[in-house]
């Protein structure tokens, strides 16, 4: 959404309320993640004596697969987005991520919000922080109980030593 902020810049108002629906087609694509069709965004842009602040809140519901046990995960990521707003050309360093720039009296809210969402989205989605995952040998879900697989593995470089101790007749 591009927001016209010229009234705020000229001093006609000190607050612009923001309330709109972001289409999920504008959201980034993550592997095995399906976002709800619409995301509600609300907040405000305020001007306090030349200091402009953008504050937004949105909750994005999504469906995904647990990275450990492969169960379906239905969750929500809450984004509490706050940035300082400045006019185009006011920044000395254009790589500063703490600011959102106004271009020709318009503020692109979606671009900054989606960038923040990408940075805050979990790298690995899990159904529970204590998820045990699947057994690497038999594939059993370890959340429902342990399996009978042998978990102790011997380093193949040390296997000849095991044979040496197995041939020991108890003579020391």
Provide structural commentary:
The chain is mainly beta. The chain folds into 2 domains: about 1-120, no CATH class; about 130-170, no CATH class. The chain is built from 3 helices and 8 strands. The chain has helices at about 5-10, 110-120, 160-165; strands at about 1-5, 15-25, 35, 40-50, 50-65, 70-85, 100-105, 105-110. Strands 1, 2, 3, 4, 5, 6, 7 and 8 form an 8-stranded mixed sheet that branches. Strand 7 (about 100-105) and strand 8 form a beta hairpin. The longest helix is centred in the middle third of the chain and has 12 residues, at about 110-120.
Short descriptors:
172 residues, mainly beta, eight-stranded mixed beta sheet, 8 strands, 37% strand
Tally of individual domains: 2
Please tell me how large the radius of gyration is. 27 Å
Specify the structural class: mainly beta
Apparent shape: elongated
Which percent range fits the helix content? 10-25%
Q: How many individual β-strands?
A: 8
| Distance N to C terminus | 81 Å
Q: How big a fraction of the residues is strand?
A: 35-45%
The parts where pLDDT drops under 50 for at least 5 residues are: none
Estimate the mean pLDDT confidence: 85
Give a short account of the largest sheet.
Answer: 8 strands, mixed
H and E order: EHEEEEEEEHH
The DSSP helix count reads: 3
């Amino acid at each position: 959404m591009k927001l016209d902020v010229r009234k705020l810049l000229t001093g006609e108002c000190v607050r612009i309320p923001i309330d709109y629906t972001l289409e999920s087609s504008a959201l980034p694509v993550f592997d095995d993640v399906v976002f709800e069709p619409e995301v509600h965004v609300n907040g405000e842009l305020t001007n306090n004596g030349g200091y402009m602040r953008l504050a937004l809140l949105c909750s994005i519901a999504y469906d995904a697969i647990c990275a450990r046990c492969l169960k379906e995960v239905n969750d929500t990521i809450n984004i509490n987005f706050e940035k300082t707003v400045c006019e185009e050309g006011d920044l000395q360093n254009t790589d500063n991520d703490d600011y959102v720039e106004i271009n020709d009296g318009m503020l692109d809210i979606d671009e900054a919000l989606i960038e923040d969402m990408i940075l805050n989205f979990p790298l690995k989605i899990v159904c529970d922080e204590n998820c045990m995952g699947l057994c690497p040998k038999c594939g059993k879900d370890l959340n429902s109980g342990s399996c009978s697989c042998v978990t102790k593995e011997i380093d193949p470089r040390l296997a000849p030593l095991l044979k040496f101790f197995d041939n020991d007749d108890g003579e020391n």
